[in-house]
Amino acid sequence: MSVTIGTKLGTYQITAPIGAGGMGEVYRARDLKLKRDVALKVLPEAFAGDPGRMRRFQREAEVLASLNHPNIAHVYGVEERALVMELVEGETLSGPLPIETVLQYALQIAEALEYAHERGVIHRDLKPANIKVTTEGMVKLLDFGLAKATEDPASASEDPSNSPTLTLGATSVGVIMGTAAYMSPEQAIGKPADRRADIWSFGAVLYEMLSGKKAFEGESVSDTLATVMKLEPDWSALPQDAPASIQKLLRRCLTKDRKQRLRDIGEARIVLENPGGTEVSLQAERLPHAEIPWAIASILAVALAALGLLAWKHFREGPPRVAKLFFLLPEREIFQPGNPPSTAVSPDGRRIAFEAVVDGKGELWVRALDNSTPRMLVAEGASGMPFWAPDSRRLGFFADGELKKIDVTGGPAVTVADAVGTTSGKGPWNGSWNKDDVIIFGRITSPLFRVSATGGSPVPLTDLDGTLHETAHFAPWFLPDGHHFLYVALSTDADKMGVYVGDLASKTRKQVMAGNTRTIYVAPGYLLFVRDGTLMAQPFDTGKLETTEDAVPLAEQVDVHNAGVGAAVGYFSASQNGVLVYTSGRTIGSVQLTWFDRTGKKLDTSGAHGQLREFSISPDGTRIAFARRDPQVGRYDLWIRDLARGAESRLTTTVGSGPVWSADGTHIFFGSRSYDKIYKKAANNTGTEEVVVDVYAHSPMDASRDGHYLVTTTLGNNRKTGIDIWVFPLFGDRKPFPYVQTEFQENQPRLSPDGRWLAYRSNESKRSEIYVVSFPQPAAKWQISTNGGQQPVWSHDGRELYYYSLDNKIMAVDIKPSVPGSPQPQFGMPRALFDVRIPTNGNTGFDVTKDGRFLVSTLVEPEASAPMTVVLNWPETLKK
Predict the structure, then answer these.
(1) Which amino acids are annotated catalytic?
(2) What does pTM read for this prediction?
(3) Which CA distances in Å does 557 have to 332, 346, 595, 866?
């Protein structure tokens, strides 16, 4: 499709050409929806016509869109074959410039690179052409990370003279020469780029700002690359008044051996902040013990030598200073969709515990800050958020429906209490441990309970306030006195949610702030919580139990899990002596709907990947209904996709559960976001939503083929019965009734095509298994799976029942249907069809068409694991 003035791409209308480059043509466009001007980078047709590269480009663009820094041009998203970006008005960076201006611009570039590097994003093509300066003197980095987003994986490691800019089809000699002149030596010989490649390019840009000349030049591409590989810049071209610290910085940035090069752009930032002051060492150095707590000093000494990841100053006498380091998680580590790693720093700041999902199984790991290798504590079954005892040796966690503890210095895990019978429901487990060995815990769909750390039966600690429509108390956190504790009260009324202080000795409580986000207390007197992706610190008086000043920001783009039922869980932790850890910049919860045949052969994909939840194929097999999260507003919307045309239409603006197709495929059932109603709406998007169930805490799961019944599950708020299966008749008096209701967790119900049998998942054997019960009267029941299972799905003829095993296989069970009057069907032995990785935190991970094809929600593997960020002495940042 040709692009001219007036052309519309989605909601954007082209208004003027800006230029052309390696990525294709760049246009000024008007966002007709938000009424703002943007820059559209229209990709070449050859690029856009390659589905594989476009999918990869979409994934990378989503990562880039998560960057939010004043010196980085923002990526808004992808529209058709165009990248939508912030329109930056200003001049392209050039030199020579006055020393003061160089320092000002270079500092802004370093801050932008540091922000991105902390989030695992590398620019890869930093050069003056990708840097603009606004009329206000603000620097903006353009095309951040797009070199990776747009490169062709098939040729990315071939001719090194073809930089990522070149591989996009640029023909301008100036473009080619410009890119080669700023390319690091390792890129020039085809090695992968890391943050040190950006540091080299930063040095080349800084050199040019100072001298007005390129650091490396030649008459051809090969000549230019040869100078990069073999020659030194002309250091005599630097102005004589350039500070010695800046000249030393330049030499460290432009060191050809990347092992000897400046390791972290944060070190450059420190020099640029004080170029004429006391000389700053550009290598990691040990701080005097008098400046930081002795425990952290010993940790840092080893961490510096092992990791080389600190960026800091060497200070003389004075207060403790802030230091930052990063570490990667296990190479095989994969997180469930929507869930970043749950982290917990020990109170003494020496260790970090975190939960990971490796090969589909929950594992508990711990890492000492003075050791570069994390250690696995629990091999499988761990779930929820781990929490430390005050002694920093014992760790509490949840596994297999039990509250457990483990001594991280050695020894097996020990069961403290049965948690299934108390905190039934969805969402992560969470707890807190005080100095008197009392543990309080709960879930996002329950009140709080208390139990002795030595073991026993949990007893209720808090009561949900019905007048406030409260649905749960979660995220408990003990205050220093050991008997007061923080927790969040959730409600179906968002205005009634809040953070409270409770008391072990009484049922009294005091609200300290509004909101629905996990909140902790840390010395020397702050509440920490995440608000709109920013980690905030708010002064708090533990005597008066109230905040004393406004909250201030600590870190941006901190990962948050919107855990449903109104809860927001920020993934951060802090010790009581100034150690803060958090994760950020992750593409969380990305899955791809993928077609497979019975043998596991991949046939095709359906739509773009994203944060998808439940989905269902229409009865006639022509459409898919699915829930997809809108990252701009943080909610799930319900969509319909036409499989033949690939067209999508939004059915609802919010959805809490579902979708479920009606028997004739004309309507969709879905639950509200507040879980207080179940609606029905025409699948062709006509008409209005109709309330069919006006009862709180029910999620639609299936509808009978005869249109008589809607099957639901509860949220698990009932402490005695947990998650249950209910039936809502859609005829007659429409009086609902519980169908499978025990003290265990029964969910994921699916009706057989003839409506005589109901398959579901239950943990009554202490392990998730698939069962079948007669319908509409539960007169007989059989266990179908033999070694664990979840997410049952019937074939369209009812002759097979499929499910997902605990070892990541699609299983099939042959069924000889019963006839009227026959007591039961005959079930065969389960057999594996194929291996596949399916997210298991939802209710629908796969579905089957009439012709036996499988549509599976497959996890999108991350290309690289973003590191955890660890900040030492973080309270010092609040004194600036």
Answers:
(1) 125
(2) 0.50
(3) 24, 23, 34, 13
